[in-house]
Amino acid sequence: MTNPATAPAPGFDAPGPEDFQLPPIFGEVTKPVLQLVLAAVIVYAFFAWTTRRPSLVPSKAQFLGESFHGIVRNSIARDNIGPEFLRYVPFLTALFAFILVNNLFGIIPFIQFPTFSHPGVPYALAGLVWLLYNFVGIRHHGFVGYLRVSTWPPDVPWWVRFILTPIEFISNILLRPVTLSLRLFGNMFAGHLLLLVFILGGEYMLLHSHSILLGVLSPFAFGLGIVFTFFEAFVQVVQAYIFTILTASYIGAALAEDH
Hints:
Elements: H1 31-50, H2 60-81, H3 89-104, H4 120-141, H5 143-151, H6 158-208, H7 212-255
Helix pairs in contact: 1-2, 1-3, 2-3, 2-7, 3-7, 4-5, 4-6, 4-7, 6-7
């Protein structure tokens, strides 16, 4: 009979999708739900703090808020929406900040979970964007006019339109929110899973493996985990920017006179 004290350590239990299914903290409230609320509070507090005493010569806080707002206004909204871009800047600014904070939760100590790595959250956000840009297009063109702009390409032979129209309808009306959410979810999921592999793998190599070689190599696993943490921070910022710029481009397309 094997002595439990001398039994070999179990193998490394690699992280997987089950690590993203977090149990409720209380009732039906899970960690991602609390993070969504916390992110909304942080975004509100940030802009309330940076605009509490506006002046002609901005303070450091006001300059920080204006710089963030300026990036969205000039680099995202104006370049993708057109003459009516100003009315959508507040929404896009809040959207960018909200996604950014939730993404950065993945590398913040004691939180370390990107909210959008849970698939239901980016799906809901993409659904909100889908409702917005379709509402904008219908209000601007009317229902029939919006369908024409979205699905009826101009300057093509009539017989080609019968082929392109179903494709355009599926692409512009049905698939946009799916691709928008999957891009954000996939990057946050894969990045967090990669960090789990290196950090938990390094812990296993150092503390639980009986192999001297693995123990010696464990600092390299932790080092790669640190490197990929910085890389993941870059990806988190980029994905927040991409989601916002695509939202602006969808609004711009909904307002355009021709597809």
